């Protein structure tokens, strides 16, 4: 299996508890994609220490929730740490939904409100082929940095997937773990992109 750092979302529980959490559907998806998850806490200092231990040479931003770009948002800070680590070492990074938005914002893109992008099924064009995925986002990425190729779009022109021209980054705006059944093609995509090197 391929060890991969996993960035989780933050959820508010009873009594004011903040939990780092991962949708359990990711477990089955990652297992079938031959990926061994190394879960990262949403604590920048701990993440710095974990990166020094060299537990993995790839990362996935698992998405979930809206993007919040504030200094008090520890998840966003962890994502920025991982993006810098990926840039320095040329390590692969895959961003799902909010994860792709984080990557694009880091590279100078913008987010704007969009409509019609919340659906259990959506047909998109991906690498020139028509595929059926899902869509759960209220913001779209615009002004995509020239460092990236747009490889997926919805019928109304919303960017659905990007790949780095040099950086081994891949972003997608659907949630493969939520598809039932999973698409075998998504297992292969993740396996391919967490193994990609500069």
TrEMBL record:
InterPro entries: Class_I_gatase-like, GATASE. Pfam families: GATase (PF00117). Residues 40-178 form the Glutamine amidotransferase domain. It comes from the Bacteria. This is GMP synthase subunit A.
């Amino acid at each position: 299996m391929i060890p991969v750092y996993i960035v989780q979302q933050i959820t508010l529980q009873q009594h004011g508890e903040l939990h780092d959490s991962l949708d359990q559907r990711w477990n089955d998806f990652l297992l079938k994609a031959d990926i061994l998850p190394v879960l990262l806490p949403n604590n920048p200092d701990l993440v710095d220490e974990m990166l020094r231990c060299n537990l993995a040479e790839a990362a996935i931003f698992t998405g979930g929730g809206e993007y919040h770009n504030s200094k008090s948002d520890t998840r966003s800070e962890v994502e920025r740490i991982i993006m810098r680590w990926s840039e320095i070492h040329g390590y692969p990074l895959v961003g799902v939904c909010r994860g792709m938005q984080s990557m694009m914002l880091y590279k100078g893109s913008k987010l704007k409100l969009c409509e019609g992008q919340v659906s259990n099924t959506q047909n998109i064009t991906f690498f020139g082929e028509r595929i059926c995925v899902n869509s759960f986002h209220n913001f779209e990425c615009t002004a995509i940095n020239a460092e990236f190729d747009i490889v997926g779009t919805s019928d109304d022109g919303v960017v659905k997937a990007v790949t780095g021209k040099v950086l081994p980054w891949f972003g997608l705006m659907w949630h493969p773990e939520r598809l039932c059944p999973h698409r075998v093609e998504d297992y292969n995509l993740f396996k391919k992109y967490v193994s990609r090197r500069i």
